[in-house]
Amino acid sequence: MVAESPKTTRTINPLIIISALFAIYMEFLGNRTVYMVLKPLTTILVTSLLFFLPKQESSKFKMLIVAALLFCLLGDILLLFPAYFVFGLAAFLVAHILFTIGFINLKGFHPHWTSFLILYAIGASLFFWLQSGLGEFAVPVGVYVLVICFMAWQGIGLFLKEKRKEFLFIAIAVLLFMFSDTMIAISKFKTDFDYSSIVILSTYWMSIGLIANAARKITLAGNPE
Hints:
Elements: H1 6-29, H2 32-48, H3 60-78, H4 85-107, H5 113-134, H6 138-161, H7 165-190, H8 196-220
């Protein structure tokens, strides 16, 4: 077990917040050029929380989370271009699968059926509400809903199985991810709403930031692979 180094997180987390705030502000102002730089930069900073670990601190869980965050980064870049929306969706789909595998790898599969029913009821309700506007995206969005609900189920399951601060971070994070993606779906397929980008981006970066910080603490605590 290696003690957490507060210096790294005290440096990187403020940089994440600053970069995210500026990215959101630039998007709000319509400064597309600066936004296209700051959006991936913010996700890179989030991912870097797991790069600056002692070399001996390597686990399958950490590598899965890093891989998931890199697919989030790819999705961020692809979604900057409307023509690549379906490819961005695919990148985030892979990210959710990797997050799910990471959660299960950490503490095993957790079949908490009450949370399962609640999450899938929410997912199904959203899908059928949006269905009339999905058009050719009905199948990929349907698959995406199934996967993100499963990811959220297992993320929440970590905390329900073992009530630790890091697992609480992950439980909150997966719910924020679901909320952020719900706002994207409403904005794209139903009706855009005021300040949608602020809501979507802030909850997304809070989500992956919480996951990265939790994964860092879990890895340094020496959880078994």
